Amino acid sequence: MRYLWAWPTMALLACTPALAQDQDDQNQIYLGDIIVTAAVRQGGAQDIRHFRQTAATGMPRPEMLTVEGLMGEHDLTIAPAHPCNQMFCLVTEAMSADLPLRPQDKLFVGLGFATNIDEKSYRRPPLNLVAVVDKSGSMDGEPLELVRRSLRQIVGQMTDEDQLAIVLYGDRSHVWMTPTRIKGHRQDILAKINEIESAGSTNMEEGLKLGYATAFSGQASFKGQTRLMLFTDENPNVGDVSAEGFMGMAQAASARNVGLTTIGVGHIFDDQLATRLSSVRGGNQFFIDSAAAVTDVFSKNFDMMGGELAHDLTITMKPAAGWAVTGVFGVPDNLMTSGQDGAITVSVPTVFLSTNGGGIYVTLGKAGERADLPAAPLSGGTPLLDASLRYTEARSRQVGTEQVSVAPPAQNASAPLRMAQRLVDQFLAMRDATTAYHINHDPKRAFTLLSELQARLGSAQLPGLKPEIALVDTMRAEAAYFSGYSSELPKAVRQMGLAGRWLVINADGFTDIRNGDVLTFADGTMTTTRNGKPHGDDEEDEDFQANEHQVFLRQSDIVFNYVLKGDRLTLSDAEAGSTARIALKRERDGAEARVKAPPK
User: Fold this and answer.
1) Cβ–Cβ under 8 Å, residues 207 and 238
2) Cα separation values, 344 from 8, 228, 364, 562, Å
């Protein structure tokens, strides 16, 4: 037995396949034993990988961040004090809130889960999977290759009893591969996957409609579970592009026992639309941006993506007299309702298997009538919070219930609860910092918030915080530069300093670049001008990408190392043995523009 956790949908499993050695082979499949670890967490956003990716090239926006996704990347298991004798049991613990951005919060309560599921005997039921793939123009290149790689890995992890169908959509939708049993057809399926190519606009509405129709048509004759998996950059531009329209389809399909997993792909992923889609009954969401991410996401989570264990889970929390629930972290606002005597009810449409344990986290403060009084005392065994649980098991339809009381804080909180408290603190500070930066145009406020958060995370001395400290450091560096506190561009956005017009003051080793030429880096294109006019033919305009160290000219297939110091730029040919070098000086009247980061 291990652990559980909660959100609009929740989750409970881990699979670790034995990977074949050559992962670059386009026909690679991943076969091996499934090792199940019984854990449960909410569906919805399962990571903040897209937020982290964006932070590597600039300050991410506040709407890209969810506390559910941040917590989903960590194991926040609260150890149960007693064995659990049903599918779900509540596990509780309390500590001091210590949230600087919410001084009204006095106590922090974790509501985790335990389960009686035997991890040694559990196996997911056969899966009827319909992959709906966005093949529009924006998916061309690396994004679509990530999808093909994902599908190849999925085929390797599927069992002989599973079946797979593929629906493609661009301007129009069509069934690329009809539902096909895995047994005896793995190589044929891989061949079809490798032939997927990009074309067209993004008519997600039509793609989902055909995907669900394909799922429904094979559902009746299939003994197992049916699920849709949508691969997209979430940038629909044809048909009904509203979240409400997509959510309506997902909700109707869930009522027919067909859930939806959204896999966000690439750099222009629309977090808001995907997050809303994943919040419906039967929904969850992951993000992939590299080959390593594909391996990580599917090797750990594939079996849990469709492992719906229970539906309509509700947790009702009633605080002790004199106390009030001041915050709930782990579910969106629209999944909470208020009742009598300060009770708060959280609704969780679906519970899944997961790799990480976790929970719903509640803050408590003084009730309104005690605003000018000390906090109500908790003595003589008085519970801090009463909580009741109710859910319906997905297969048997049996109803399970439980009631527990949360004890006042013990002397020393467990490491998982302290970790959850730090992650809530991190979420609040990063949300406010990105809001200050993008919405209020106040990078100095963003810098202050991130600096204070950096200090708190650094002093927490908790395992697992290293990637969070690195993320905050990256965001803080950008806020420092644009606040005027630092004269050096942060590493994550140093390539932005290339944008603009640069006068060539010395060129060695080049026949087509000479002193006095001007190189302009703007919107992913490098243009060369001589005496104010374009130099040469149209081929002199080069698409380019850049990171903090190098510039890649796509048409010429040339990589330059670069050094940027103030108004001086040096480009040197990265080819081994080359001594070609260009020295440039910034022209101040040039317009700045975006500089695209290279694919990883």
Assistant:
1) no
2) 15, 33, 12, 57
Please report, in angstroms and rounded to a whole number, the separation of the first and last CA atoms in the chain.
38
Contact 12, 307 (CB under 8 A): yes
Q: Give the CA dihedral 135, 62, 300, 461, nearest 10 degrees.
A: 160
**What's the rounded Cα separation, in Å, for the pair 572 and 551?**
10
Averaged pLDDT for residues 94-117 = 92
- DSSP secondary structure code for residue 3 in this structure: B
Rounded-to-integer distance, Cα 334 and Cα 346, Å: 9
**How would DSSP label each residue in 294-321?**
HHHHHHHHHHHHT-EEEEEEEEEEEEPT
- How many CB atoms within 10 Å of residue 525? 14
Model pTM above 0.85:
no
| Residue 459 burial (C-beta neighbours within 10 Å; 0-12, 13-18, 19+) | exposed
Facing residues of 405 across strands? 386
Confidence of residue 592 (pLDDT cuts 50, 70, 90): very low
Query: Which pLDDT belongs to residue 326?
Result: 94
Q: Amino acid letter at 361?
A: Y
Nearest to 4 by CA among 38, 42, 40: 40
Q: Which amino acid is at 451?
A: S
DSSP notation for 68-112: HHHHHTS--PPPPSS---SS-EEEEEEEE---TT-TT--EEEEEE
φ/ψ of residue 561, rounded to 5? -80, 145
Highest-pLDDT range among 7-11, 126-130, 273-277, 594-598 = 126-130
Contacting residues for 566 by C-beta, under 8 A, at least 6 apart: none
Rounded CA separation 178/218 (Å)? 10
Instruction: Report the 3 state secondary structure along 259-297.
Output: EEEEEEECCCCCHHHHHHHHCCCCEEEEEECCHHHHHHH
**Best CA proximity match to 263, nearest among 303, 305, 224:** 305
For residues 568 and 591, what is the distance between their CA atoms, to the nearest angstrom? 17
Instruction: Please answer whether residues 551 and 498 qualify as being in contact, where contact means their C-beta atoms are separated by less than 8 angstroms.
Output: yes
Q: Outline where DSSP puts E strands in 115-162.
A: 127-134
Q: How many CA atoms lie within 13 A of 48 on its CB side?
A: 28
Distance (Å, rounded) from C-alpha 47 to C-alpha 66?
Answer: 8
CA distances from 416 to 43, 115, 140, 384 (A): 20, 18, 42, 20
DSSP state of 325: E
Phi and psi, residue 291, nearest 5°: -60, -40
